[in-house]
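Good morning C.,

I know you're traveling, so I'll keep this short. The sequence:
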Amino acid sequence: MTEELLMDAMFNWLTLQEAFDAVKRNKGAAGIDGRSIAETEQHLEQHWEAIEAKLRKGSYIPSPVKAVTIPKPNGGERVLGIPTVQDRVIQQAMQQILTIKFDSGFSQYSYGYRPYRSAQDAVKQARNFVQQGKSWVVDIDIKAFFDEVNHDIFTASNQPENIRPPSVRPDKSVSESGCSERRKSRTTV
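The C-alpha cells, ready to paste straight into the viewer:
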C-alpha cells in the first residue's frame, strides 16, 4: 500500500466516523485543550481540511497530553496521560487502518493490545499449553516502556520499508509530545 493510499484509507470519511464513534463510546475526558467530545466534533467539522493537510505533509504536531494522577488499587499512584479528543480521533483512525495492515504478521499467541483478544484469552491458551505437557509460559509486561525507551532506536526500528509516511511512522512527535501538569509542561521522556 503506497503512502498516498494509506493516508486516503486513514482519513476517509467512513474511517474518521468510525474512529470518532470509538472515541465517543470510550467517554474519555477532555485533554489539555479542554475541548469535550461534542466541542471537538464541531472543531473537526470546521477545521478538518487544514488538519488533514498537516497530517499528509507530516507537519501535524500532537498536543501535549494532560497528566492526571489516579490511585492504584494496591496503593501508590499512577500518572495517566490524556491526549486531546482530536488527537485520540486521529490516533484511532490510524490504529484502525494499521491494525488491518499489520496484525496478521503478529504471532497467533500474542494477546496484548490486539483486537478481539484479552488477558483471559491468554490465560486460557496458557492452560491449554500446560494440558499439552508444555512447561513454559512467557508473560512480558514492560513497565513505563515509553518513559524508558531510547526513542531514536525505537523510531528507526519501527519503520517498515513499505510504509514511511511522516505522519504515520512512530516518530518523536508522537512518543515525546509532552505532558502538562498544572499548567506546566514537561517532556514525557
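Safe travels,
E.
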